[in-house]
Specification:
By secondary structure, this protein is mostly helical. 74% of the residues lie in helices and 0% in strands.
């Protein structure tokens, strides 16, 4: 069965959780590095979602414009 793609909101929650864990006063260095790497990966996925949305909006705007011929 194919895995469902995470929504922007799911990824945002995941990043928020990572940031909360990184701010814990008792976090170990190794765990902090691992969480930082995970945070970067999630941030990349969020950026991809935003780029995809931007491209879709641009496409819709172009379709809505009357032909300039």
């Amino acid at each position: 069965m194919a895995q469902k793609q995470a929504t922007f909101q799911d990824l945002q929650r995941q990043l928020d959780e990572i940031l909360d864990r990184l701010q814990a006063p008792d976090i170990q260095v190794d765990e902090a590095v691992k969480l930082y790497e995970q945070g970067l990966a999630v941030a990349d996925r969020l950026e991809a979602h935003l780029k995809q949305a931007e491209n879709r909006i641009t496409e819709l705007k172009l379709r809505a414009q009357p032909d300039a011929a």
